[in-house]
Amino acid sequence: MSGLGWRSRKFWRKRLRRMRNAMASRFFDTRFGRRLLIENIGQRVVSITVDAGDHLMTFSPSDYVGRKVFRKGHFERENVDRLLAVLRERGLLRKEGTLLELGANIGTQTVYFALSGTYSHIISVEPDPRNFPLLETNIHQNRLEKKVTLVNCAAGEITGEIDFFLNANNHGKSSAIRQSPSDAKISVPVRPVADILSGAGLDQSDVALVWMDIEGYEPVACRSMVALMTRRVPLYMEFTPLFYGPEQTREFIESLSGFYEDCIVFFEDGEQDMKVRDLPRDIDQYDVLFLP
Fold first, then answer.
1. Structurally, how many domains does the chain consist of?
2. Is the CB of residue 67 less than 8 Å from the CB of residue 31?
C-alpha cells in the first residue's frame, strides 16, 4: 500500500467522521433528538448536569423531571413565573420574607425562585432520599447556600417517621399516602412545619409564601401549619381531588375555607378568581393560590 493511498483513505475517514458527528450534534440538539437520547441513555449513567442558561441543573436521567429538564431546559419554570406575576400584580410580594417550599424534589423550582430574587430566604423541604442529594448538588453548584436552607424530611403533624412510597419512574410522584404496585416502601422522618422553621432559626411570621406539591399529603401538611394559615399567609398548592377522594376533598375545602375566603385557580387554559368554598371537586388536579 502506497503512503499516498493510505493518507488519502485516512483523510476521508476523518472527514466523514466529522460530517457524521456534526449531523448527529445537530440532530441531538433538537427537541426530538434530546428526547431520543435521554430515553436511551442507559442505566450506567446515574446523573447528568446541563447548563440551562442562567443556572446549572443536575438530575437523574431515569427520572421524569430530569428527562423534562434535558428536553426543554427547565421543568415547569413558567409556573413559578406565572405565580410571581400574580403576586406582584396583587401587591402580595414580600422581598424581605421567607418562602417555605414543601416538596422541593431536586430543586428546579427552588432555583427558579432563588434566581428571581423575590424572597430573602427559602426553606426547601424534601423527604425522598433519591432527590435530596441532587437538591443539595443543585443548590451548591448554583452558589445558593446562603439563600436556601435544605431540610430532609416530610412535613406532618407530629415529629417521628412515616411510611413513604418511592415511585420508580417519577420521583416527583413518590408519596406518603399513595402507593403503586411497583413502589418501594421506606420510612422517612417527619416534622411539623413550626419545628422545621424553628430549626432553621426562623419564626412563622417570617414566612411570606408557602409553595406545596406533596402528592396528596397536602391535608396533613396543612394541619401542621395552622398558625401560618391563621395569619392567611399566601398558600400555593397542587390540589388533587383525584388523590383525596370525594369525602376528604369536601373536608379539605371546608377546612381551607375556614382560613381563606378567596383564591385563584390555575387551569391549563387560564386562571380564575373564586371563593374557596367553590373550589372544583370534579377536576382531577389543578393549582390554586389561597389569598390573604
1. 2
2. no
